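As described in the Methods, two query proteins were run sequentially through the folding procedure within a single session, without resetting any intermediate state between them. The first query and its resulting structure tokens are shown here.
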Amino acid sequence: MMNSTDGSCESNSRSARCRGFIDQLAEQRWLRGSAYLLLYFLLFMPSLAMLFMAIEGPVEEQEKIALRLARLDFLANHTCLSDAELERFLAIVLATNNRGVSALRNASQGRSNWSFGQSLFFATTVVTTIGYGRTAPLSHLGKAMCIAVALIGIPLTLLAFSLTAGWLRRLSLRLLVWLRNWFPPDRQSRAALLHLCLIFTCLLVCFLLIPAAAFAQLERDWTYLDAFYYCVISLTTVGLGDFIVGEHPDQENRLLYKIFAVVYLYVGLIFLVFALRSFADLPDLNPGRFIYSEDLDALIDSDRYDVSTGCSGGGSEEAKLLSPSSLGSATASGGSVGPRGYDSTGVK
């Protein structure tokens, strides 16, 4: 009787020590993650700012010098126009251009910023949060409607993207199961890595390289780098607005072109969400687990401790399914377990 009591006390003491160790480890990870984020904001971002200053600063100065020389040359050739009158005219032109109306003759005649194609493209940039900023509503009613569209359309669009990306993920799991059959049980993590590489290769080729080549041919003044830059800035929803498809005054088939651009943005964003979700599903490549760990079961599993028994080899069932060792054992036993418990048919 005394022996059983002593054994129980010893087990409880061992569990308490493991619990204290896990709590201490979680706190250390939280502090380390906070330090990483602090370094990111205090060192990395200012370094990026200085880098952009060094690259773009001289180019801006050259543009200012060229503009100043062009202005002086224009005044020298048009002596009847004073510098103050030219300044007032340029202020009107710039203010009108900032409101989305071009001062160029070919652009201002016979073309509307609010045709069906342009309006569809504008609505797409609002609900996808790209927001190029070149075209914007001018009336109070239009601004109010834009607010309503953003508040309602953005959550619905994100929901649609998430559901569609989940459907693509279910299909991709069949490819992952097929790839695992080509790797030995102790190399199953390589199959998952190859699967992820194929997804991002498809993203690069089908949604960046090939569309960039198409836009470079369709846009008269764009180089391939300009078109590739537009694709990256758009699909990452940065939307700087310096390059926008279909804005040339002499663009042919503008309506069809704008619809094509809308379809490209929707499909590209959906595939990007799918690719990012696939990346996050690989625990070995997810940097968040090295910074923060809110799930104690996952933390215990990664450090090979079990709180309830004080022995190694514990952890949640989901973490076990995601670990490379379990993938190998599943394949060796004849099963085909997908990430997060999906079977070979892509169904949980």
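Immediately afterward, the second query was submitted; its sequence and tokens are:
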Amino acid sequence: MYLRMVEATVKIDGEVLLGSVYSEKILSSLEKIPGCIFAGLLHSHDHSKKYISLTLWKSQKDAEAYEQSGAYQKNLESVKDYLEKGSEWKIHLSEDNTVEYSPVPVEPDIKMYPVSGNEAHLPDEVPANSNYLRILSLKINKGYKDEFTHIYNSEILPELKKIEGCRYAFLLDNSDHDSEMISLSIWDDADAVERYEKEGAYKGFLKKIEHTLGGLYQWKMALENRSRTKSAITSQDIGVSKFTLITGRKFN
């Protein structure tokens, strides 16, 4: 499978309408696109105006064909009035030689990742019963990618899927960018995620793979283990992002 995320900043007065347009127009459009397995609109918990359109594809070829066909641009046009314009302005002359100013459009940020492992089936209940996504960003030490991937797929992933409230989970390979691997999990609600993070399972999973994480992260952990009053922020810290699923649909 292949995952594609389109991130954009939405106007305050466009948030409600965006969900309706996405549900009525974009989901209907994507349902007809070959290779699209799932599509959903996500709202960030940390940034109130940040939204992501997440799509799952059977292959990278399918995702790229969608973008090159013009269908993506057409879908973008249907929501562009709800997106924030840029802070940069373009100066140009009108036909009567009057100076005019217009904002430079901000193109949404597009990210694409291959799914690591053999995950090929999205459970039918995911769109209906799930409304929360958790994205974990991990920076892997040089030479440890294969070991990390093996531990995650063989030891962590099967146990994660057994945790109450977790509907689905998989690993994304972004190792070409700063040695990053991404764990994405889909949950019933925020309470299920909070229980998972507080009851020890999450820390137990980290213990299994901490030796494969970046050197700066390991230095930070060693520092904090030596002194409870000392801490540090590094470029290899684990990043956690959480999103509410506004609307979504699985396609056959």
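The radius of gyration is 20 Å. We note this only descriptively and draw no conclusion about the first query from it.
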